[in-house]
Amino acid sequence: MNGSSSSPQLEKVNPEAEDFLPLLGTDHIELYCGNAKQSAYYYIAAWGFKPLAYCGLETGVRDRVSYVVQQEKITLVLTSPLIPDGPINDHINRHGDGVKSIALWVDNASKSWEETTSRGAVSVMAPATREDKDGSVVLSGIETYGDTVHTFVERKNYQGVFLPGYGPWNPSQPIKPLGLRYVDHMVGNVGWGEMNTWTDFYARVMGFAQLISFDDKDISTEFTALMSKVMSNGNGRIKFPINEPAEGRKKSQIEEYIDFYQGPGVQHIALATSNIIETVTELRNRGIEFLQVPATYYDTVLDRVGHIDEDLDPLRELGILIDRDDEGYLLQIFTKPVVDRPTMFFEIIQRKGAKSFGKGNFKALFEAIEREQETRGTL
Asked: What is Dmax (Cα atoms) for the chain?
């Protein structure tokens, strides 16, 4: 959550974007999950998030419970149903644990809804004001790919802990943050032939522009392939790569995702850090499992990317990948799936000037994913 009483001045870094829909940042990400209390403990104990807010029976909510956790500008809302039937249950039954809402922080949620629905977006929530003793928040929402939605959050007149209807949540356990700072990007997986449909949606409905694209020549191995386009808003704070499968000899990770998620959805959330070595070391110490590329990757990586500030040895030991573009370089690593189904995972990324997404690492990364698929019998 990036909430504050005033809106920042926004620099336009993607000149192709129309920017009729000013977005201030990622407000929060809501995940529907089978057991929100235990999921919250996982993100606190393993990922270093701090407890922030809660809603449920004690706050007058009868059909669901939500725990809100936060680390710097990253806010996760973990929601479970309290009743046997309903839309939350349906979502979990079909998809397993996964992202329901990518909530975007805006200056005017009513205008955001009007701009997007007038351009063809399907409404899931007309603008509505929620109030409590700490002020008011305006919320609205639209459909995106699969069952995922965008919620527009206008909070300039609110000083509460999270949203009206939530109370503070202050358990006594000690919290040690891991240096995670903000959401760098969020990747959506869509079905065969649907990538252009959804990149066109973000361009037409939300004013985004394409930053970069990758085809099956860029993202392929001996066995599998996929295609991807990266869409970004004008200030560059919101970046949505959209993936679709491509023809290959075996089942790609995108096909595996869609099979187990039962349709399109959020594949991974990329979280930025200022010190990836420290962050990943601590995550591994807390039991988080990462994909591992072959050790031979590091034999030639510096020949490809040139000088980097970091010593190569800890990067090799941790399995952190390196890539360079015209602006600088980046360091990145990907977890194994963090839910029971082989669907959602996280990326940890540190940018040292680079604006790209690690194209030079694709082959090694996807070979590592294929090895995991093979152990699951889904390749």
From this structure: 60
> What is the sign of the dihedral through the CA atoms of 17, 23, 25 and 28?
negative
| Full-model pTM | 0.92
Length of the chain: 379
pLDDT tens column, 334-360: 999 999 999 999 999 999 999 888 766
pLDDT in tens, 52-109: 999 999 999 999 999 999 999 999 999 999 999 999 999 999 999 999 999 999 999 9
Calculate ∠ Cα 257-72-184, nearest 5°.
Answer: 40
> Over 197-213, what HEC string results?
HHHHHHHHHHCCEEEEE
Structural domains of the chain sorted by starting position, each given as residue range(s) with its CATH number in brackets: 25-168 (3.10.180.10), 180-376 (3.10.180.10)
Q: Which residue has the tokens 């479970």?
A: 80
- Per DSSP, the residues of 251-281 read --HHHHHHHHHTS-EEEEEEEEES-HHHHHH
Report how far residue 26's alpha carbon sits from residue 341's, in angstroms, rounded to the nearest whole number: 26
Three-state secondary structure readout of 214-259: ECCCCCECCCCEEEEEEEECCCCCCEEEEEEEECCCCCCHHHHHHH
